[in-house]
Amino acid sequence: MVESIKTLFLGTDWESVETLKALHIDERFDIVGVITTTDKPVGRKQILTPSKVKDYALENGIEVFHTEKNEERYAQALELFKPELIVCKAFGEIVPGFFLEYPKYKAINVHFSILPKYRGAVPIQKAILDGENETGISIMLMSEGMDEGDVLEIYREPILPNDTNQSLRERLVKKSAEVLGDILEDWIEGNITPEKQDDSKATYCWQKDISKDKAEILWDEMDPKYIERLVRAMIPWPVAWFVIQEGKTRNLQGKIVKIYEAELVDIDSNLKPGSPYVSNDCLLISTKDRNTSLRIKDLQIEGRNRLKEKDFINGIGKDLIL
């Protein structure tokens, strides 16, 4: 490209910052402004806190604008910034059609799935939960429909057996930051023909799929493999949890336990599903499959500090040794 492209960025959280940072240091793009969410009350004291994108923009002299889900504000943003290109990553607002159609080079979104599969808010977590072997990055034209726009490019990424939502997300964020600039240049120079999605193959995932309620482990109902995936999908939030119903340590009964790391092991157990026990220096929970238990390697019991497996066994876990 002969001249840098006037680019308006939409985003909110840390992964948005990585995308913004990559474009900001890339001379092919002139970041004329960012649109992000308004400051939110955070913590017990409800202190008004700016988004990560706003922090980065202010630190780097980039003008910040808040649309507040108001169409008139979107129109004002176009008048103010006059972008040739809009780039969006994890913004969190429904964007009006006239705003998307304004730039010469349209509006581009970075979505972490292989579209049309997993349109929606939580594609990484849902892919792990469903036991998928791969996910990816879809770089696409934005449309008024949710993740329905034509696709410019897709990168595929394997889901490793020990991947959590966090570890997989970090890889996808890094990869998207590396490749986005070149894809945008190819698009601007007319070297990419967008491909329509096959709507008949679309699947969806919603923010409500990843909640504290959905993170509860139901030992009597859930397949052991699903439980292990649930643990990985719920990192770093809301974290998979269960309530101790039975066990030799009476003062633990009724306590909520959060699981940060776990793996399945083949071991015979005649205990009721959900019962904690210690065997061969491992902290285990029986499942509905008597031949399979979940080994807990990192946990936090309600009202106590987070512990590694060994520290738990050497402490209050001694009573659970079979």
Automatic annotation (TrEMBL):
EC number(s) reported in the record: 2.1.2.9
PROSITE patterns reported in the protein's UniProt record: GART
Any one GO CC term of the record: cytosol
Protein residues bound to (6S)-5,6,7,8-tetrahydrofolate: 113-116
InterPro entries, per the entry: Fmt, Formyl_trans_C, Formyl_trans_C_sf, Formyl_transf_N, Formyl_transf_N_sf, Formyl_transferase-like_C_sf, GART_AS, Met-tRNA-FMT_C
Domain Formyl transferase C-terminal positions: 210-316
GO MF: methionyl-tRNA formyltransferase activity
Domain Formyl transferase N-terminal: 19-180
Catalyses which reaction(s): L-methionyl-tRNA(fMet) + (6R)-10-formyltetrahydrofolate = N-formyl-L-methionyl-tRNA(fMet) + (6S)-5,6,7,8-tetrahydrofolate + H(+)
Keywords associated with the record: Protein biosynthesis, Transferase
Function: Attaches a formyl group to the free amino group of methionyl-tRNA(fMet). The formyl group appears to play a dual role in the initiator identity of N-formylmethionyl-tRNA by promoting its recognition by IF2 and preventing the misappropriation of this tRNA by the elongation apparatus.
PANTHER family, A to Z: METHIONYL-TRNA FORMYLTRANSFERASE (PTHR11138), METHIONYL-TRNA FORMYLTRANSFERASE, MITOCHONDRIAL (PTHR11138:SF5)
HAMAP family given in the database record: Formyl_trans (MF_00182)
Family: Belongs to the Fmt family.
Protein name as it appears in the record: Methionyl-tRNA formyltransferase
UniProt source species: Candidatus Dojkabacteria bacterium HGW-Dojkabacteria-1
Lineage: Bacteria, Candidatus Dojkabacteria
Encoding gene (name): fmt
